[in-house]
Write a structure and sequence with these properties.
This protein is an alpha+beta fold. 27% of the residues lie in helices and 29% in strands. Bound molecules: fe (ii) ion.
Length: 317
């Protein structure tokens, strides 16, 4: 929903934010938390319409070795209202991708967001936009990780604390981002040490606030004591795509035995690496096999934690 007074999604934008965009963290105000697209009724409707391929519901439980592991679940035949109730009382989180399939208003909103940023940030041109709705229980946390595309996190309901870390050694080893881009490492397997927090930027994110950080900055997130509803939006720009291609090529070269690999942002070496990355990626040599998931719980608002165990089965998406 556009801010009634200004017609804008961003409500405290100042001209200098355009200079900071993509280079430094931006913690700004928006109007999306007032939108009718994110009421309980709207979210319940979306959850009921979601294709199985477009959602994940997760929790964490201790395995036989005592270590917490992430688990995949299913909605079963619960109504949207029951699902929200389970999240509110439980210890689960839902990632709902592609809400525009159920209602094109979400797709329009996504395009409006980027149109507004492109109008405000000099020279910005974005593509490959994605939006995901995150609905998560009180105290749920997202471990240390980094994301490959450009990212924004929009808080709609509840409060969360976000820690942001620089995208450089030792916080982000160059080999780690390469492995992530090559699909050889799960994003949350990024090595974390508690002293990283001494260098973190910590932001308490409240409804009506959003956060944008520079490309690949590692981060972790902890919900405070209430149900959280957030959006993540993802995008590419030419520099983001070039960084992806250079890291991809560097990852291949590292596997071939090279050790000192620069992350060029321009010039002939960058284009050579982009050609290498494109050649390998589109040749199909490396093949991309969708990872199967083992689903072993069903959401249940009447069970402790908002979920109960079921006979495990394998789901391929
Ligand atoms: Fe993330």
């Amino acid at each position: 929903m556009r801010d009634v007074a200004t017609g804008h999604i961003m409500t405290d934008w100042k001209e200098h934010h355009g200079e900071l965009f993509g280079r430094h963290p931006l913690h700004l105000q928006h109007s999306l938390h007032k939108s009718e697209l994110f009421t309980d009724a709207a979210l319940a409707r979306l959850l009921e319409k979601a294709d199985r391929a477009d959602y994940h519901v997760n929790t964490r439980s201790a395995g036989p070795d005592g270590k917490l592991r992430r688990r995949e679940g299913e909605f079963g035949d619960l109504s949207g209202v029951q699902l929200l109730e389970a999240v509110r009382k439980g210890d689960i989180w839902i990632n709902l991708r592609a809400p525009q399939k159920a209602d094109k208003a979400y797709g329009n909103l996504l395009e409006d967001i980027y149109r507004e940023f492109e109008a405000r940030v000099p020279g910005l041109k974005t593509f490959k936009h994605l939006v995901t709705i995150l609905i998560s229980s009180p105290h749920v946390y997202v471990p240390y990780h980094c994301d490959v595309p450009g990212q924004m996190l929009w808080q709609l309901r509840g409060r969360k604390r976000v820690w942001l870390y620089p995208a450089s050694e030792p916080f982000l080893p160059q080999a780690a981002i390469e492995k992530l881009i090559l699909g050889e490492m799960h994003e949350t397997d990024m090595p974390f040490r508690t002293w990283f927090d001494e260098s973190a930027k910590v932001v308490d994110l409240e409804p009506g606030w959003m956060l944008h950080w520079p490309l690949n900055w590692p981060h972790r997130v902890e919900n405070q004591d209430s149900l959280n509803v957030s959006l993540t939006t993802e995008h590419y720009t030419r520099p983001v795509r070039n960084a992806y291609g250079v890291n991809y090529a560097n990852g291949l070269l590292r596997k071939a035995g090279f050790r000192t690999l620069q992350q060029q942002g321009s010039g002939a070496a960058m284009y050579a690496k982009l050609a290498l990355a494109a050649g390998v990626k589109f040749s199909g040599i490396r093949g991309t096999v969708a990872k199967p998931y083992t689903v072993d719980f069903r959401v249940d608002p009447d069970s402790p934690g908002g979920h109960r165990d079921i006979e495990p089965y394998v789901l391929r998406k």
